[in-house]
UniProtKB/TrEMBL annotation:
Keyword Lipoprotein: no
Protein name: Putative GNAT superfamily acetyltransferase
Every N-acetyltransferase domain range: 21-169
Keywords: Transferase
GO molecular function: acyltransferase activity, transferring groups other than amino-acyl groups
Gene3D superfamilies for the chain: 3.40.630.30
PANTHER family attached to this UniProt entry: GCN5-RELATED N-ACETYLTRANSFERASE (PTHR41700), N-ACETYLTRANSFERASE DOMAIN-CONTAINING PROTEIN (PTHR41700:SF1)
């Protein structure tokens, strides 16, 4: 009889092979500086800036936390770092994960997350939490529809001011996700279609947010659209990106405070929010 961690490890290896990388857990013998520099490059930080210093990574590895990197031809091209969180003994919080831009969309991110899942299951950890920017459609689809993580809480301006290319000049709102590592959706796509008659409470109108919360009154499921590429909007028109931040914040917090839950994310670019 196989333990859940055995099957998870096999799935993780298969995902890494498919992505053309080797994913390894990092320990105190691992040179951390190349991984730290790689993650800084993912966020387009300056040469002396980093979100996770190498010395902190060494300390985290020494105290038994989760650190991994995806290697191609001996070079780190992706990484993931997490620490234990409450409820202690059951949850890991994944603080940062990234893949170098030139290899985005090739399955490396999935390989890292499945490695993280296998590592956790082998240690009796049942769930992983992390935050993501709810305006980034590709992350919403991957995290919610592909991995099956469950949005649990909307966090307003969670990190405060950040200076990297993705966050500079914008409030750092985040959605907190919880990933049940034992759920059937933990490795397979978990997308659910929107009902044909689901009203849109946030629409895109000539590139601008169009909020219509009143349209969702009495509906079982509503949809909330976001731009297909918010990074491009931020680069071209930061003020418009700011309007999208405030609009999505208003819509999601209003819906969640009314007792609804984010149930999914459609690949065409909208959240599904409903009862239960």
């Amino acid at each position: 009889m196989h333990a859940p961690g055995d099957d998870a490890a096999a799935e993780a290896r298969e995902a890494a092979d498919s992505a053309g990388v080797v994913v390894r857990a990092l320990d105190t013998a691992t040179p951390m500086a190349p991984v730290s520099r790689m993650l800084s490059a993912v966020w387009n930080l300056g040469p002396n800036e980093t979100h996770v210093p190498a010395e902190l990574m060494t300390a985290m590895a020494h105290t038994g936390n989760y650190l991994s990197a995806a290697y191609r031809d001996g070079e780190p091209v992706g990484g993931c770092i997490g620490f234990f969180a409450e409820p202690l003994g059951r949850r890991l919080h994944s603080h940062i994960a990234g893949v170098v831009p030139r290899l985005a969309g090739r399955g490396i991110g999935r390989a890292l997350k499945l490695h993280q899942r296998a590592w956790c299951l082998a240690r009796g950890i049942d769930e992983v939490s992390w935050t993501f920017d709810p305006l980034v459609a590709r992350n919403a689809y991957f995290d919610i529809a592909r991995l099956g993580a469950r949005p649990a809480e909307y966090l307003t301006d969670f990190y405060g001011s950040l200076d990297d290319v993705f966050n500079a000049g914008q409030p750092t709102d985040r959605l907190l996700l919880v990933w049940d590592l034992h759920a059937a959706s933990a490795t397979a796509a978990a997308a659910r279609p929107a009902p044909a008659d689901a009203p849109a409470v946030l629409r895109i109108s000539d590139g601008e947010p169009d909020v219509r919360l009143e349209c969702g009154e009495g509906a079982d499921v509503v949809t909330a659209a976001i731009p297909p590429d918010i990074d491009a909007v931020r680069a071209a028109d930061p003020a418009r990106a700011g309007r999208w931040r405030l609009a999505l914040r208003h819509v999601l917090t209003s819906l969640l405070e009314s007792g609804r839950h984010v149930q999914g994310f459609d690949k065409s670019g909208f959240y599904l929010v409903g009862e239960g």
